[in-house]
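yo

u said u wanted the structure for the complex thing, so here. seqs first:
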Amino acid sequence: TGHHDIDASALIIEENKTLREPPPSSSLVFGHSFADHMLAVNWNGATGWAAPRIQPYGPLTLDPSSVIFHYAPSLFEGMKAYKDVEGRVRLFRPDMNMKRMNTSAERMALPTFSGKELTKLIAKLVSLDSNWIPSEPGYSLYIRPTLIGTQAALGVHPANDALLFVISSPVGPYYKTGFKPVALEADPSLVRAWPGGVGQYKLGANYGPGIRVQMEAAKRGYQQNLWLFGEEHWLTEVGTMNLFVALKRDDGSTELVTPPLNGTILPGVTRDSILGLARDHVSKKAPIEGLPDNLVVSEREINMGEIIKASEKGSLIEMFGAGTAAIVSPVDRVGFKGRDIQIPAGEEGAGPIAKAMLKSITDIQLGRVNHPWSVLV
Ligand code: PLP
Ligand code: COI
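structre next:
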């Protein structure tokens, strides 16, 4: 990689002279409207990262020969900015997104960078567009850092030119009128990621192929697919979210299970946060209301055989997806080999663990409780 790292102090700001009015919060559709400004940082193999620019949101100009259009050197992050109870702007665990973005860049032979410097620039961007952060509870500004190879050349080799850009989009809560549990289709013939593959990186190329799969599942009445792996039908992820399952054990304890980071699972920030909060509850460092007293937290493999057995025994008590967009997404049904496994989702559409986790995480994100994960901008 080139000599210059990203340097936030070299930032050049070109303010947008035709500011738009953010749409009314009630009309927001995820990722459909974009704030007035974007951040752009060019990279070249000889010189490194150029001076960062904040400029009006608008189209990019790229050669049709740019590698991005041919071999898909593209990766992204998803994070959010929040208006807190006092109207200040906060980010949630930006260091985690920066770390993951660099991991993806390294795998994709795209340039890495200082996560601290990019975080400073993102803070600057969201401050400038802070009128685009909705302040109603559950609303936020979704931030999309993206890195693409732009070199105009058809050779399959590391890109000598790259562009890192950051755009942002005001978004509403996933569930406007209370939880709505989703049904999943688990088709063992479909595979999202495999050992030695790239499922643990947030590459654009991991997402396009899932769209058709979701369309097919939707035709049969399932909102998302449950990605399985291997002959043993190991559970991996839910659509574009990490997976959690709660099981009642014979000794009366409740086990909260999520598949381990074995290379086929995206290391989610929400996943890590839920694990951290659950472990702090177990150790009594920070007990959480609504979580069982005798909770056991497990990062371990779990397969469909175990899910079916637990369902038959009545010990399958909760299942939910976890990701930045929805935070938690309760599951009430899994279709597998022609039959449906019903999962209790509670009277309010979410089980006690999903509900408690959603509350704990949003309390931190909105600064209702003090926590080092929430970073003031
Ligand atoms: N798994 C996949 C495949 C994802 O795309 C995402 C979403 O961003 C997640 C899990 C959840 O990750 P995070 O909690 O960092 O948003
Ligand atoms: C998530 O935040 O959970 C996502 O999966 C984001 C998606 C738009 C890629």
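The CA atoms of residues 5 and 49 lie 5 Å apart. The helical segments are 68-71, 94-107, 115-128, 208-219, 269-282, 304-313, 352-365.
cya
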